[in-house]
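Subject: for your reference before the review

Hello V.,

The reviewers asked for a structural picture of the protein, and I figured it would be easier to keep everything in one thread rather than splitting it across files. Below is the amino acid sequence we used in the manuscript, unchanged from the supplementary table.
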Amino acid sequence: HTHAHAHTHTRTNLHTPRTNTPTPNMGPKADNVKVAVRCRPINKTEIEQGCKTCVTLTPRQVSARNPKQPKEVPKEFTFDVVFGQDSKQVDVYTKTARPIVESVLEGYNGTVFAYGQTGTGKTFTMEGDRTVPELCGIIPNSFAHIFGHIAKSTGDTKFLVRCSYLEIYCEDVRDLLSTTSAEKKLKVKERPDIGVYVEGLSGWVVKNADELDKIMTKGNRNRMVGATKMNAQSSRSHAIFTIMLERSDVGPDGEAAVRMGKLNLVDLAGSERQGKTGAEGQRLLEANKINLSLSTLGNVISALVDGKSKHVPYRNSRLTRLLQDSLGGNAKTVMIANFGPAGYNFEETISTLRYANRAKQIKNDPHINENPKDAMLREFQKQIEELRKQLEDGGYAAQCFRENTSTSVLQRSGLLSSCSLFRFHPEREAAAQKRTAAVTKKLDGMARKSRKSSTARKKKGTRAFRKRRWRPFRPKLKRKLLR
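And here is what came back from the structure prediction:
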């Protein structure tokens, strides 16, 4: 059977339902940003220059010693997971991105992004070498994971997978999959119903992992790269590959319940120092814009962590604006900080580790993106199962439930059809229905009076309006009548 019912490479509208904006007080489901760090191997140039390793790694800690001040106490940092110089791509994916992809398949939003100095292996971590299975990075591994899960799904579950690919070059948003011109500048906008979005961004419906891979290859051809003294293939822009996954299941009421997850795979351009990269002209302008957006990202992280800032500067950069939900909002987020081991880059390494250490204190508030009605039915179904267990136990709680639960309450909550084994008292039920009818009658009469008052209010200058002050229906009176 086919789960993704669409034609290959079909353009779609990428507007998605609005997600929650960040709030300072998170509920019990608040989820911290997970942070992993990865140290690349020392390269040939650093060996020729006689650079020595300045970091010591354990499974969860990084210790960095300043080679210029050997007597100083090493600086230590603790993270969720630490990957050494000999780490494998599949291990990085399994321990960082795999849980995020699993959550997206269930209807959550997820973000994975790599951060670090230029030339530390961010693009290798995210993409790797897609022609060699052992060297595939997070993005191609997530493609295989998603469609492997879809292939194993059973029953009436159906999926629709869409994708988009954009870059932020010198603070301009560009569509890497555009069929007209990849250099066209797009606007970042916001609407009450869908939140932050990119106007005019193209989207493509795909049916398998190979199609996703071909689309990404096409986008990479349009991405801005350039050579510097520290990296022959340096990314000169931030790239965001987004996968939108809609899942349709049969809900408790027998109707189709749709959940939608969104996965952002972000390859950030590296921070640069002009003295080391030797950037000039256009490369220097690109470096300034990259450092500015990364600085804004740092300011956003600091504002979210300190708890004192009333304003979070998301709007100061296109990058932070597009990642607003990923930082303190409705998403599960993993950050992978890349750094080099050479003492020559000690200051950049310490800066990256401090950056990552602050990021792990950010709290997000992820939830499943679904219709509120479906969520309510799911909650009712959970309550029904709990009540069934109580009845099977035959304890005091089950006896109280039989004696005190009214049929009308169950009817309003939608539980009656699933609770046929309960016994009720006819007298109590009749009395409850009588009280409900009386209150409803009174409320109807008051509503009619309220409408008449509203009509009189519109006729300004009339005697009726001058004599009687119009008042809206008061909720306190409703509660008093119900009591």
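For the response letter, the relevant points are probably these. The longest strand covers residues 238-250. The chain is about 40% helix and 20% strand.

Happy to draft the paragraph if you're swamped.

O.
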